[in-house]
Q: What sequence folds into this?
């Protein structure tokens, strides 16, 4: 079994990085689930912007389509992350049309998989958060760190959805209420 070196910190400039082992830990499940729910709702909001006729669009042959991205977020959350935190092997089998086809089905699949994942995560105790689980490549990682990676994974692919939609000229909601231009206009001028 490989051990994930998940306590290392890297800096783009070559200077020592101070380790603070109590930062960014998930020790309160209710706080984590609230945060995770908000992250997920921002993903759902942008997924609802996908035009039905562009659902299977990709910028290049062989790359994720918009539907693949949504199905991938849903399927890997439920079938890899939620399985492995239970001490089970990953059941992730891809993100193809066989999982959900058509805009309404894809959006419903996203919500169904998220609901199942939250139900599983909700059963974790503080001890469970601090035990190790095994990733699909055989690495051992603390459960709360694996959950943090799950959130980062969703955010990463949500960003891809934003980029794809921008390439198509589809308007999307600002992530936190204001666009970059609005923040600039409301900021103090030098």
A:
């Amino acid at each position: 079994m490989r051990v994930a070196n998940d306590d290392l910190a890297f800096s783009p400039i070559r200077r020592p990085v101070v380790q603070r082992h109590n930062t960014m830990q998930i020790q309160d499940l209710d706080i984590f689930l609230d945060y995770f729910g908000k992250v997920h709702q921002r993903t759902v909001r942008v997924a609802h912007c996908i035009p039905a006729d562009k659902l299977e669009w990709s910028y290049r042959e062989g790359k994720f389509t918009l539907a693949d991205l949504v199905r991938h977020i849903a399927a890997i959350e439920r079938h890899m992350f939620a399985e492995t935190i239970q001490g089970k092997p990953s059941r992730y089998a891809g993100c193809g049309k066989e999982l959900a086809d058509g805009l309404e089905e894809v959006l419903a699949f996203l919500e169904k998989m998220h609901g199942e994942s939250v139900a599983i995560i909700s059963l974790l105790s503080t001890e469970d958060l601090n035990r190790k689980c095994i990733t699909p490549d055989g690495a051992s990682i603390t459960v709360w760190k694996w959950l943090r990676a799950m959130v980062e994974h969703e955010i990463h692919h949500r960003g891809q959805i934003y980029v794809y939609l921008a390439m198509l000229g589809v308007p999307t909601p600002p992530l936190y209420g204001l666009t970059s231009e609005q923040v600039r206009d409301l900021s103090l001028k030098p």
